[in-house]
Design goal:
alpha+beta; 60s Ribosomal Protein L30, Chain: A; Phosphoribosyl-aminoimidazole Synthetase, Chain A, domain 2; 2 domains; seven-stranded mixed sheet; 12 helices; 12 strands; globular; magnesium; PurM-like_C_dom; ATP binding; Thiamine-monophosphate kinase; PurM-like_C_sf
Length: 310
């Protein structure tokens, strides 16, 4: 009996495509040499209203997010933005004023990230679908990749995580909801990391656990520590009131658009005055991805994260 795509999920579908196309670079974005000393960094993300836009998200915020999710991939590669392509499909009965708000969000984000809108396409659909393509530039062979780390490198994040995950379950004006509706890509941070010796990076879109597995490679392991991850008592209290496990939110939901990166202790000194970051663990040779809880208990981390088709 043939399997349905829901039986295997998005990551297996992507793996099938990659395995059958020798030209694809399996990273946050594609890398294409365009001259003797430059490479083009390109990425594309599609957002569907019923899947990716919370009901309390404004049309303006939808447009801004469509740019952010793509720029976040450029950030993970340490690329400088070059241009943005926008393809948008909308219902024919959407108000013109609402459509203009989406475009205002796109343009505001493009200005914020200093990435010009250079083209795109429009079409009709039963719901809002926004597909963006972001282009960036790097010097040849300088792009941050997912797997450049060594044993002993530190595992770090560029800011607090799990805020958006909690915000998706709230309807107020808290920082959690703001993070869920108005996340910002860490573009400048990615460039700083690339220029100061970071050994790998990826953006946290599907949850910390999922991204740890995304950067994992044979013969290496990772240990992170609960007491190194910023988790406020308020966060724990609100999670409990919603019958949610706070660690599950932090590890398995995502949408923070912070960067997960690795760096040697020596190079850590180079970035400490240039950007905010939090050391949460280290690379080892255990072959496992684990967390040391506050109790001292060591637990394996599952790879589950946000997964289309599941």
């Amino acid at each position: 009996m043939d399997l349905k795509v829901s039986d295997i999920g998005e990551k297996e579908l992507v793996k099938y495509i990659v395995d059958n196309c020798k030209d694809i670079v399996f990273d946050d974005a594609a890398i294409t040499p365009i001259s003797q000393n430059k490479e083009l960094i390109s990425t594309s993300d599609m957002l569907i209203q019923s899947k990716h836009f919370p009901k309390n998200m404004s049309y303006f915020q939808m447009g801004f997010k469509a740019v952010t999710v793509n720029v976040s991939d450029l950030a993970a590669m340490g690329a400088k933005p070059l241009g943005f392509l926008l393809s948008i499909a909308i219902p024919k009965d959407i108000l013109v004023s609402d459509f203009k708000q989406i475009i205002e969000g796109v343009l505001k984000a493009c200005k914020f990230y200093n990435i010009p809108l250079i083209g795109g396409d429009t079409n009709e659909a039963d719901e809002i679908i926004i597909s963006g393509t972001a282009l960036g530039l790097n010097d040849k062979e300088t792009s941050l990749r997912k797997d450049g780390y060594s044993k002993g490198d530190l595992i770090c994040i560029t800011g607090e995580i799990g805020l958006a995950a909690l915000g998706f379950n709230l309807d107020d004006d808290s920082i959690y909801v703001k993070k869920a509706l108005e996340a910002v890509a860490k573009l400048n941070e990615g460039i700083i990391l690339k220029e100061n010796g970071a050994t790998s990076a990826t953006d946290i879109t599907d949850g910390l656990a999922s991204e740890l597995y995304e950067i994992s490679k044979d013969s290496y392991g990772m240990m992170i520590y609960e007491d190194k991850i910023p988790i406020s008592e308020e966060y724990k209290r609100i999670s409990k009131s919603l019958n949610l496990n706070y660690l599950d939110l932090i590890l398995h939901v995502g949408e923070d658009f912070e960067l997960l990166f690795t760096i040697s202790e020596e190079n850590l000194e180079l970035i400490k005055d240039k950007l905010d970051f939090i050391v949460i663990g280290e690379i080892n040779d255990s072959g496992k991805i684990e967390i040391t809880l506050n109790s001292g208990k060591v637990c394996g981390i599952s790879s589950k994260g946000y997964n289309h088709f599941k």
